Structure formats: structure tokens, C-alpha cells
Amino acid sequence: MSEFEINIDLPGSAFNECILVEKYKNEYALVLAKKGDKGGTVWKKWVYPQIGKGKIAEKAIPLKIPLGNATDAITVIKQIANAFNLQIVEGGKVVLAKPEDDDIPF
Question: Which of 27-36, 63-72, 77-86, 97-106 has the lowest mean pLDDT?
Fold first, then answer.
């Protein structure tokens, strides 16, 4: 059981999918989940991972992206924000980064 889970809706998802930010044993992760049609119950999506060529594990695991401890998770999230040309500024606000070169490229 996770210490905490934060549910983030995925806009435009045709299947009521969402992302859970979870903490388990001091490790943070992003987990793909689905919201129920009635009542808003959230279920994690589970998968059977491939463990070799043509072999599938006997046990299912949550479909997640591990981010590491709190410090590592913050570093990863900042890199993701940077990939989308976003910056996290004082007070935790996220803003669109200005391009380095405002000149017209032609």
C-alpha cells in the first residue's frame, strides 16, 4: 500500500485514464490508472512484464515509471518540465521559458 497517492486526470482520455503520483518506501513513481465510470474509484493498470524472449512473468505488476527518492524525483520532474520548455520559478510556479534567440531564423 502506498504512503500517499495523488490523482492527476489525463485530459482527453477516451478511457478515463489518469496518472497517480505515489510514494512507497521512500520511492516516488508515476503509475497509469483508470477511473471508474461511477463513483470515481481509481484502479492501477497492471501488466505482465516480459522476462525473456517469448517469456512472460507469472505475476502482474503496476505499470509505472519509478522516479527515485524525493531529491531524484525533483530532478527528473525538472528535466521533464525543461523538455516541454517550462521552468519552475520561485514559489513553485511553472512558466513557459522564453526562447534563447528571439531572432527570426531566416
Answer: 97-106
71-96 in b/e form (b: 16+ CB < 10 A) is: eebeebeeeeeeeeeeeeeeeeeeee
Question: What is the tally of structural domains in the chain?
Answer: 1
31: in domain: yes
Q: Residue for cell digits 501488466? A: 47
- Domain with 51 in it: 4-69
Q: Half-sphere exposure (CA, 13 Å, Cβ side) for 90?
A: 0
Is the pLDDT confidence value at 29 over 90? yes
Instruction: Let me know if residue 19 belongs to a domain.
Output: yes
